[in-house]
Amino acid sequence: MILSKIIKAVKAEQVAGRQDLEISSIAFDSRQVKPGSLFVAVPGFKTDGSAFMVSAVKSGAVAVIAGKAAAAPAGVTLVKVNDPRSALAAASAEFFDNPSGKLRMAGITGTSGKTTTTYLLRSIFRKNGEKTGLVGTIEYDLDGEKVESKNTTPESLTLQELLDRMVKKGFNACVMEVSSHSLELHRVDGIEFDAAVFLNLTQDHMDFHGTFEGYLAAKLKLFGMMQGKKPGPKVCAVNADDLRAAEFIKAAKVPVLTFGFNEGSDLRAVNVSNTQTGLKFDIARAGGFCPLDLKLKGSYNAYNAMAAAAVAAGLNIGWETIKAGLEAVENVPGRFETYKSPAGFTAVVDYAHKPDALQRLLEAARGMGAKRIITVFGCGGERDRAKRPMMGGISARLSDFTVVTSDNPRSENPAEIISEITGSMNKAKFCVVPDRKRAIFEAVNMAKEGDIVVIAGKGHEEYQLIGGKVNHFSDKEAVLEAISAGGKWKE
Questions:
Q1: How far apart are the first and last CA of the chain?
Q2: Does the predicted model carry a pTM greater than 0.70?
Q3: Which terminus of the chain has fewer CB atoms gathered within 10 Å of its CB, N or C?
Q4: DSSP per-residue letters across 17-43
Q5: Mean pLDDT across the stretch 317-342?
Q6: Per-residue pLDDT band at 203 (split at 50, 70, 90)
């Protein structure tokens, strides 16, 4: 691609050097630069990309996009912009010929439930005959081709490349999780969405956004991206039961469908029955009811199913197809995955690592008729500290007993994290076992028939981050081993 086309797309403030250069690739990591590359000097959290411009040029970069204060090495074209992150998104979309404009795009945002909703909506699209990709926390899935997920929503260059691959493979649609980080950091700038979903908003990522209002403002940006000229139906689906619903409805520039349990929603969950075999409920809607018999467990999944149904209905997909798609989903990795013990208790592995997610998880377990709930959880290091005592309080209130352990402590002292969790908990209702595997064994050892052991926080993850090291660890593997051993720990 000729550099001048990219310069126009990024709305450059100043250009020094030739604009007729052929650009073979784009990179924002100097280690990925090849001969003919355009290097985008993105400001990082620890270092500024402009510090690597010389290295990029030595590796073959012929042009550089950078902030206004940058000075490029001699012999390359320097393109100065107001915001290099935003420019990276615009340049990437232009370089890959705006692939989102050739796909039916659905973006899901909210504190909890994004992953499950993408799986449900993808299933509906597939039942509708649409070859559908998925971008999210667990994986980037190109209809069987799996790409490791490093971020819930990848950097704009990676995202545009994924979408381009989908287009070239003949895909019709893509469903994706849209995180608040991605909206704030311009990762989804230039994506032409056909549908946007708001699930819920509770405290999370205060370490990044600073305030709850900042977190809200980031989420609202998704609904502001629905004003493009892309043909075809568009819809915004909003959880009407959430306290912030009105702000998302106001932000929507296209038709809105609301969903929830309360009266007044366009789609409403009624006759809800949550058991250890699945979730049954009816979606009440204008014109009748849609009875559902889901394999997913947990009453909160009614919200995720209704969100997916609202998007599909707004995009003119029939209710028979919606029903078939929702009921076809067997499970979502690391989301309320259940394992039965020969001793008669059930273990649940779930990704819940935020206050509201933990509360919903424990309420769902209680609603399944548990005699006792024994919870194993910890909190991640270098993340929002304010949620630690909140989650401790939630587990103390909704569990019969809690085994407090480590999650991903990263560079923090695990003992200090645990101390912040347990500060206000009733000492009679918890114990501390910092080693996560041993903590799972401890919970399994005390479980009896009819109990539910809830292991929260890591879900699908197969690693633990401790002191800068990545160690293999799987809650699923640990609990299966503990069940097989009867909970008996061997040194």
A1: 61
A2: yes
A3: C
A4: S-S-PBP-EEESSGGG--TTEEEE--B
A5: 96
A6: low
Burial of 244 (0-12, 13-18, 19+ CB in 10 A): middle
Q: Locate 359 and state its tokens.
A: 């509360």
Sign of the CA dihedral with 64 first, then 68, 71, and 74 last = positive
Stretch 239-253: mean pLDDT: 95
Domain ranges of the chain: 3-95, 99-328, 337-484
**Fold type of domain 337-484:** Protein-Tyrosine Phosphatase; Chain A (3.90.190)
Residue 133: phi and psi, rounded to 5, are -95, 165
Question: d(Cα 36, Cα 114) in Å, to the nearest integer?
Answer: 38
pLDDT over threshold 70, residue 205 = no
> What is the CATH superfamily name and number for domain 99-328?
Mur-like, catalytic domain (3.40.1190.10)
So what's the pLDDT on residue 484? 96
Residues 6+ apart with CB under 8 A from 384: 203, 204, 205, 206, 207
Residue 471 DSSP SS3: strand
| pLDDT (tens digit per residue) in 142-183 | 877 888 877 888 999 999 999 999 999 999 999 999 998 899
